[in-house]
Amino acid sequence: MQTLEKQPITTFISPSNQPKPKGNFRLLISLLIGIILLALIGVVIYTPNGEPEILPDRKKKLEDDLQKLENAEQYALIAQFSGLYPCPSCPDQDSIFLLKGEIWKYGYTINGAEGRGYSQTFFRKTGLRYIVQFRGNVGACMAEEKIKIYHYPTLPENLKRQTKLLRPPGNKEDR
Prior knowledge:
This protein has 175 residues and is α+β, with helices and mostly antiparallel strands. The chain contains six helices and seven strands; from the N terminus they run αββαββββααβαα. It has a domain at 72-159.
């Protein structure tokens, strides 16, 4: 008896005979649409006339943030006591002697002293006092701060020093 060798059976499917991925394609499109809709849920709501709108809590946060930008303040940190204070802007030393009432730093903020990181503990430890010098929108406060920093070299407290400073002792840069 003769034995037949087993040969693999191959079936050729011509491109016209291949199954169409209708179900898979539709499933993929449905999944993509679902992902997009899920991404939009919680971000956008629609008005009764169909216009997209941000969520009420985001709208309130935006209004609050814009209000802060309109109610900024330019401040100075002033020495409360005569003594040594850190001096990041000093060219050849790490501290400087300030008399009571002399400027240590100019700045601006939209969040007040506390929002700037200046707590009551900070003021007790450093011997500085926060003084508001100007109130207005954030752009105007930034301009006031910059003007005061750039004019610092002409202040009498700086002119009397042997080594004149380019900016107040607490201002590391012109900002």
